[in-house]
Amino acid sequence: MNLNYLTISEAMDGLRAKQFSSQELTTACLEQIKKYNKKINVFITVTEYLALEQAQIVDRKINNGDKLNPLAGIPCSLKDVFCLKGAKATAGSKILQNYIAPYDATTVKLIKLNDAVILGKVNTDEFTMGSSTETSASGATRNPWDLSCVPGGSSGGSAAAVASAMGFYSLGTDTGGSIRQPACFCGIAGLKPTYGRVSRYGVMSMASSLDTIGPLARSVKDIALILEAIAGVDINDATTSREPVINYAAKLGKGIKGLKIGIPQEYFGQGLDPEVAAITDSAIKQFKKLGARIVKISLTYTKYALACYYIIVPSEISANLARYDGIRYGLSKSEGDLLATYLQTRAQGLGDEVKRRIIIGTYALSAGYYDAYYLKAQKVRTLIKQDFEKAFKQVGVILTPTTPRPAFKIGEKNNDPLTMYLEDIFTVPINLAGIPGLSIPAGFTKSGLPVGVQLLAKQFNEEDLLRTGYAFEQATDYHKMYPIID
């Protein structure tokens, strides 16, 4: 039995039945990391000592007959924007290459309270800015299904870690699709919860009004277990909601008979890859077989979402990244006076994509342009949100392709930022609206690349979202397939 290829629920059952130990699970994952990490470039930091120590604690609890927490003894990873006390937190950037986190992020505290086993920190686009995990100062991560392709981004390290069995799940971030797009490209499940459902405290910010924390895992049930562990109000994050956290996993098996699923026409037009379109159509037919009612809907303002997003996000980036100045922490290039130190530190410490977005954001917020760009973008954002609110009066769940095409080749879009930004065209509207989105595996292209579909629900309705995804998963085998890396 390859222990590291189990789902979380299967591993939990095995631990409780004493079929294997947490140390054995952890060792299997660590061996997988040692075997394939150089080839795929997933882990920036491996916390082997911490992981084995945490596993030993769980094994003692099992031997003592203690009650186990839902994620107890299950090895996982963290996108390298999460603070893990005593470990490097680089955000994939030269400017933080030697930064050691002095505290745990709230989500890290919560999984530690659940006796999780933390294997280390995984690769990300620099400060989460990218759709391919190619902008990292630690180099590009590769897709386990095809090493010549990208794993998606910015949580590409998280998706690749799960897909290649270097851990059972990973915590990532999603500002415009950075969980759902890599989950799609790597053939796993990924959830962007409702904005405010999960605390952002201790996670490096990109765009504060859009950043969302969520899980990537092999199955929808695994996603449900993780969400329950990390969701909830946090006094350190004023944006978190007091909306009750439910037992999501217990609600999964209710079925979807009679559920109205909306299909927005705006997501099926020009630019959609024919194979992605065919796989999405097949998924729609499967949901119909499961008893769902398919309803055609319209999301009129979808076409403005990408332009709106790429004004709001750079504007917030220009403010959030001002803290990386070479004075308080991280890289410092002392060049005489204070201004010269700022300029040289940022020039040498930040990558091209980060600089590009800072410049765009500073311009959009500058005197004389604020009303024309940032303020107008916020008004359009409101219209996009209202679009979804109107749609959810007609349907319970919305289904779209997760991405317009499968994973592309490494280096294919590096010299064309606009084409790269278009990879997020189906995911960014969801962040602008603040609603939850779930990507699940839905099939494979003729060349063997995974394709996913995206399910959407109204704010804080993760229950129906997960139930719908679970119903599809139980009727198909796509989530059970693994890449052959050798």
Automatic annotation (TrEMBL):
Pfam family, one: Amidase
Superkingdom, taxonomy of origin: Bacteria
Gene3D superfamilies documented for this protein: Amidase signature (AS) domain
Keywords recorded for this protein, A-Z: ATP-binding, Ligase, Nucleotide-binding, Protein biosynthesis, Transferase
Coiled-coil intervals: none
Catalytic residues, chain numbering: K79, S154, S178
Enzyme Commission code: 6.3.5.7
GO molecular function: ATP binding; glutaminyl-tRNA synthase (glutamine-hydrolyzing) activity; transferase activity
Catalysed reaction, written as an equation: L-glutamyl-tRNA(Gln) + L-glutamine + ATP + H2O = L-glutaminyl-tRNA(Gln) + L-glutamate + ADP + phosphate + H(+)
Residue stretches making up the Amidase domain: 24-466
GO CC terms of this entry: glutamyl-tRNA(Gln) amidotransferase complex
GO terms (BP aspect): translation
InterPro entries according to UniProt: Amidase, Amidase_CS, Amidase_dom, AS_sf, GatA
Family to which this protein belongs: Belongs to the amidase family. GatA subfamily.
Matches recorded under NCBIfam families: gatA
Subunit annotation: Heterotrimer of A, B and C subunits.
UniProt function note: Allows the formation of correctly charged Gln-tRNA(Gln) through the transamidation of misacylated Glu-tRNA(Gln) in organisms which lack glutaminyl-tRNA synthetase. The reaction takes place in the presence of glutamine and ATP through an activated gamma-phospho-Glu-tRNA(Gln).
Protein name: Glutamyl-tRNA(Gln) amidotransferase subunit A
Protein source organism: Candidatus Portnoybacteria bacterium CG_4_10_14_0_2_um_filter_39_11
